[in-house]
């Protein structure tokens, strides 16, 4: 697909041509087999902690959206995969230099050509997003979609950093919980249940 065909498919909301740019979900998940994965959320509280070295020691470091990283001591330095639900400014793309981009938003019109044409690009299926939204009773955050996706793999462990379900707000903006469409209480309860049922999952508070 060239750039013009991509723009046309995006404008007309034709998901099949866009999905053809994506690696299969099975291949994405196979890449995680046996790995210790760190998923980094954007909670402001993470900046007050010192988990950077532990984050960078993971086999795979996955960050979310613009992924603010105020200090290596708190956030680490690596970005192996970047999960997006918003357009990524060129400066952030250069700063993060992700090895793979995952587009998690159902809003395909926000998807940019640089991301869609990048090596290893992954497009999260609309059906998976809808299924999780039904479970949570609200549109899921990018973090929730990533947790749901990653735990389908045969990874060895998944450790969550910077997830406090908006209690300390987000480093990536000034919006309050009432300004976004997500149900953070539902997501917190869902993760609490996962922690009880899946020994691979750890939440660093």
Automatic annotation (TrEMBL):
Any GO CC annotation of this UniProt entry: endomembrane system
Predominant location category: membrane
UniProt keyword list: Glycoprotein, Glycosyltransferase, Membrane, Transferase, Transmembrane, Transmembrane helix
InterPro entries: Glyco_trans_29 (IPR001675), GT29-like_sf (IPR038578)
Compartmental location: Endomembrane system; Membrane
Keyword Chaperone part of the UniProt annotation: no
Single annotated GO MF: sialyltransferase activity
Pfam families documented for this protein: Glyco_transf_29
Lipid bilayer topology: Single-pass membrane protein
Name by which UniProt lists this protein: Glycosyltransferase family 29 protein
Organism: Paracoccus hibiscisoli
Species lineage: Bacteria, Pseudomonadati, Pseudomonadota, Alphaproteobacteria, Rhodobacterales
């Amino acid at each position: 697909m060239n750039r013009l065909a991509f723009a046309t498919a995006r404008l007309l909301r034709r998901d099949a041509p866009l999905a053809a740019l994506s690696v299969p979900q099975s291949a994405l998940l196979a890449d995680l087999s046996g790995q210790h994965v760190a998923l980094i959320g954007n909670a402001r509280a993470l900046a007050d902690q010192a988990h950077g070295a532990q984050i960078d020691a993971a086999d795979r470091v996955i960050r979310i959206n613009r992924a603010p990283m105020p200090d290596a001591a708190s956030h680490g330095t690596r970005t192996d995969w970047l999960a997006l639900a918003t357009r990524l400014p060129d400066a952030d793309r250069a700063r993060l230099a992700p090895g793979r981009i995952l587009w998690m938003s159902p809003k395909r019109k926000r998807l940019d050509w640089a991301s869609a044409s990048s090596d290893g690009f992954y497009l999260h299926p609309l059906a998976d997003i809808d299924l999780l939204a039904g479970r949570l009773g609200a549109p899921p955050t990018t973090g929730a979609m990533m947790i749901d996706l990653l735990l389908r793999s045969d990874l060895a462990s998944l450790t969550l950093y910077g997830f406090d379900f908006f209690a300390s707000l987000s480093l990536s903006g000034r919006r309050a919980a009432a300004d976004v469409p997500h149900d953070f209480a539902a997501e917190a309860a869902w993760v609490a249940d996962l922690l009880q049922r899946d020994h691979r999952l750890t939440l660093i508070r």
